[in-house]
Design brief:
It contains 15 helices and 19 strands. It is α+β, with helices and mostly antiparallel strands and about 450 residues long.
């Protein structure tokens, strides 16, 4: 029997798909420039025991497997190679429980981020991590990549909210990691280790997440246009220096704004070269004052136009434009997405170096960023079929990664290493720490079946 036949015999043919019209659609994520192959089988489990059976079969046969959420990743972490098994969690999409007293939710990995946020709001609770893909990305995928989002500057990333989980590890055993209590320090933090592991250590089948009380007050939005990336970067640094922690501080440049305008006709690109969007969610007069302080920082750093938005719909439209930047650029050609993160004080210098890389390699680069925490997303756009332009963009991409490391940053703030940044990850980690990573993987994945060839 081949792997598909063995899987069908164990968990039922109705959960195993081999038609290439189906399997090809599960072969890759949104990282256009990362390689992929054709899976031998796609499995859509309904229960943890199904997942356990899949792991056991793949371990017995030595067949690699990769877990998949909605496929919104941007580093190739969910990409399969020829002959692999893909485990899609789309059918494991139940919110199992919400505890308003403990302020937790326990969910299956296929639950969509935005659906969870809407559901817990009905209990007066809030799940903060909000990647731009929140309307489509799943909690399992968010856990695999330790996803961030627009409000992570103040409220943190996925790891900060994962309390416990159920997972299937390389022995085929189902284990529970972490806790459901507010505190707990028993043993190593193996739950935290799984978050951001990009599916290389096991398959997560259930997650318990910490929640916050639903924010009741309105948000105050501050808009600032600047004539250069460098000036916008200085404004970001000024906000941090002033001791202000906004609930969002986002950057989007003219190139991206024009792409959004041409698609959605929103009229956002007329005022300047770079737009900064900031928000304060502090209640009452404290929020009013914080917004005024942010506005003053923008003006002091030379904003060509800066104002507090008094129109809630207009403010939402501006943040919608920020979320639409990536798909807007994708309409122009193939997009290679960067994800470096640098210390906040280094944001102006890093933005200047991104601009220089674009000039040096004659590559159009759009810039969006979670600027408030130094997480920059330069977007390299290449016309379809232009191989020379693609080669230049790849060189610019590599230089931007090197520059981030030189400034004391990291090669990825939230998208993960996947296939695109393995060499850079080795440089950042160093040989001894890389050896520690490999030792952990060997211990938890003795058969070497979980997403081999990714991360390192």
């Amino acid at each position: 029997m081949d792997v598909a036949e063995r899987l069908a015999a164990r968990i039922g043919a109705q959960q195993v798909y081999t038609d290439t019209h189906v399997t090809s659609g599960y072969a890759r994520d949104h990282a256009e420039w990362a390689p992929s192959g054709l899976p031998a089988a796609v499995v859509r489990p309904r229960h943890t025991e199904d997942v356990r059976a899949v792991v056991q079969v793949c371990a017995e046969m030595g067949v690699p497997l990769v877990g998949r959420g909605a496929g919104t990743g941007l580093a190739g972490a969910a990409n399969a190679s020829d002959g692999w098994a893909v485990v899609s969690f789309e059918r494991m999409d139940r919110i199992l429980s919400v505890d308003p007293v403990q302020q937790t939710a326990t969910v299956q990995p296929g639950v969509v981020n935005g659906d969870l946020r809407e559901h817990v709001a009905g209990h007066g609770l809030w799940y903060p991590p909000d990647p731009s893909s929140a309307p489509w990305s799943t909690i399992g995928g968010n856990v695999a990549t330790n996803a961030g989002g627009l409000c992570c500057v103040k409220y943190g990333v996925t790891r900060d909210y994962v309390l416990g989980m159920e997972a299937v590890v390389g022995t085929g055993e189902v284990v529970r990691l972490g806790r459901t209590t507010a505190k707990g320090v028993t043993g190593y933090d193996l739950c935290g280790l799984m978050v951001g592991s990009e599916g290389t250590l096991g398959l997560v089948t259930e997650v318990t997440l910490g929640l916050r009380p639903l924010r009741r007050g309105g948000e105050h939005t501050v808009v600032g246009y600047f004539d250069s990336l460098a000036r916008a970067g200085e404004a970001v640094a000024a906000v941090a220096t002033a001791g202000i922690t906004p609930s969002a501080l986002e950057l989007i440049d003219r190139f991206c704004l024009q792409a959004v305008d041409s698609w959605k006709n929103m009229g956002l690109s007329a005022e300047g070269e770079v737009l900064l969007l900031a928000r304060s969610d502090r209640p009452g007069g404290a929020g009013e004052q914080e917004a005024e302080d942010i506005l003053e920082c923008f003006r002091a750093q030379g904003a060509v136009y800066a104002v507090r938005s008094t129109d809630a719909e207009e403010a939402e439209a501006l943040f919608a434009a920020r979320r639409l930047a990536y798909p807007a650029l994708a309409r122009l050609g193939s997009v290679l997405t960067e994800d470096v993160c640098v210390p906040k004080a280094a944001v102006p210098e890093m933005l200047a170096r991104v601009e220089e890389a674009g000039r040096r390699f004659d590559t159009p680069i759009g810039n969006i960023a979670h600027a408030g925490d130094g997480n920059l997303h330069p977007l390299f756009v290449v016309a379809p079929g232009d191989e020379e332009a693609r080669a230049r963009a790849e060189k610019a991409f590599a230089v931007v990664v090197e520059q981030a490391l030189e400034l004391g940053g990291t090669i990825t703030g939230e998208h993960g290493v996947g296939l695109l940044k393995k060499d850079s990850a080795a440089k950042e980690l160093g040989s001894e720490v890389l050896g520690m990573h490999r030792a952990v993987k060997a211990a938890l994945d003795p058969a070497g079946i979980f997403n081999p060839g990714k991360v390192f």
